[in-house]
């Protein structure tokens, strides 16, 4: 009986292997804390390890902006420097580590790391 079902079992095993190989893992979202929100602005504290990690910062920004057409995320790595509302002080502006802008109407999708790209 096992020999009769051998082609069927082989197809099941091959299909299972192909399915498991073709799935794309979902990137895990690094830890972050939204310390303020005002309109489309999100003021966020991240871990220092993300300061120049474009992929990690973009993952956080995408998580925050997932249901919005217009979204702005400002990142700090020190909760003592982070703005909790707008307008920001000069010190808060000068201690930002990154900024993300999304405008789906115009196609803008930009992440700037302040130490590399300027903010």
Provide a compact summary of the structure.
The protein is α+β, with helices and mostly antiparallel strands and 119 residues long. It has four helices and five strands, in the order αββαβαββα.
Task: Please characterize this protein's 3D structure.
By secondary structure, this protein is α+β, with helices and mostly antiparallel strands. It has one domain (32-117). It has 4 helices and 5 strands, in the order H-E-E-H-E-H-E-E-H. The chain has helices at residues 6-22, 54-65, 90-94, 114-117, and strands at 32-38, 41-46, 70-76, 98-103, 108-113. A 5-stranded mixed β-sheet has the order 1-2-3-4-5. A hairpin with a 2-residue loop joins strand 1 (32-38) and strand 2. Residues 6-25 have low confidence and may be disordered.
Which key phrases capture this entry?
119 residues, alpha+beta, 5-stranded mixed beta sheet, 4 helices, 5 strands, 27% strand, globular
Structural shape = globular
Radius of gyration: 22 Å
Give the terminus-to-terminus CA distance.
70 Å
Q: Total domains, how many?
A: 1
The helix/strand class is: alpha+beta
Number of helices: 4
Q: In which range does the helix fraction lie? A: 25-40%
Could you spell the SSE succession in H and E letters? HEEHEHEEH
Q: Topology, please?
A:
Elements lengths: L5 H17 L9 E7 L2 E6 L7 H12 L4 E7 L13 H5 L3 E6 L4 E6 H4 L2
Parallel strand pairs: 2-3
Antiparallel strand pairs: 1-2, 3-4, 4-5
